[in-house]
Design a protein that fits this description.
alpha+beta, SH3 type barrels, Lysozyme, 5 strands, about 15% strand
Length: about 220
């Protein structure tokens, strides 16, 4: 039995031993990403993920590290057309180019920077959710989504518009590298350390986004 399948079996055994508390499940992938789904089932060497907004995604079991209850309350994402029959055919950058261009122009943010943030945050997966609860393409935290009046953070247009508005507010306060650090680690962390926080994850995040965007630390 493979390590991934063994991990899944252990989690399932634990789930069968006691009552289900969560109304959804978190699927953790070998890429480090997680996806909140309504349920799952196994079909041969594949796992079928029942999406909370309707529809399903099929992927090889070897891509799944573990399955755990999702106990964080959040709105159900909408059924997203074009998700594809396989996890590998998730939406790409071109699928959201028009929305990004429109919102970037409206809020005065370089669209190349927005594309880079989305690539690093979610890989252009509108249904992505991190273990910490960040949601959608630009990985909005629940409190950020609430503050920006986002009714459904899994809706691509609403998510991108809110994410760009949040990024714009950070660029109004900090130069670009610090704004990105604040997007990743929070404004308080940037203010506390008076610069990019000494977190390996945040430093790598800033470097990767700037590289993908083709920008320098002094760009606005």
């Amino acid at each position: 039995m493979s390590r991934s399948v063994a991990s899944i079996a252990v989690v399932l055994a634990i789930g069968l031993a006691g009552p289900r508390v969560a109304s959804a499940e978190l699927i953790f992938f070998t890429t480090g990403r997680a996806l909140s789904v309504k349920a799952h089932r196994f079909e041969g060497d594949s796992i079928v993920l029942i999406l909370r907004g309707g529809g399903q995604v099929v992927c090889p079991q070897r891509l799944v590290v573990r399955i755990a209850p999702d106990e964080v309350p959040r709105p159900d994402p909408p059924d997203t057309p074009g998700t594809g029959a396989w996890l590998g055919s998730m939406p790409r950058s071109g699928d959201f180019a028009a929305i990004i261009a429109e919102a970037s122009a409206e809020h005065g943010v370089d669209p190349k920077l927005v594309h880079a943030v989305i690539q690093v945050e979610s890989g252009y997966q509108p249904l992505a959710r991190s273990p910490k609860g960040a949601m959608g393409l630009m990985q909005l935290m629940p409190e950020t989504a609430e503050r920006l009046s986002v009714a459904n953070p899994y809706d691509p247009r609403a998510n991108i518009d809110a994410g760009i508005r949040h990024l714009r507010s950070l660029l109004d306060r900090f130069e670009v590298s610090l704004a990105l650090a604040a997007y990743n680690a929070g404004e308080a962390a940037v203010e506390k350390f008076n610069g990019i926080p000494p977190y390996a994850e945040t430093r790598a995040y800033v470097h990767k986004v700037l590289r993908l965007a083709g920008l320098t630390a002094s760009a606005r």
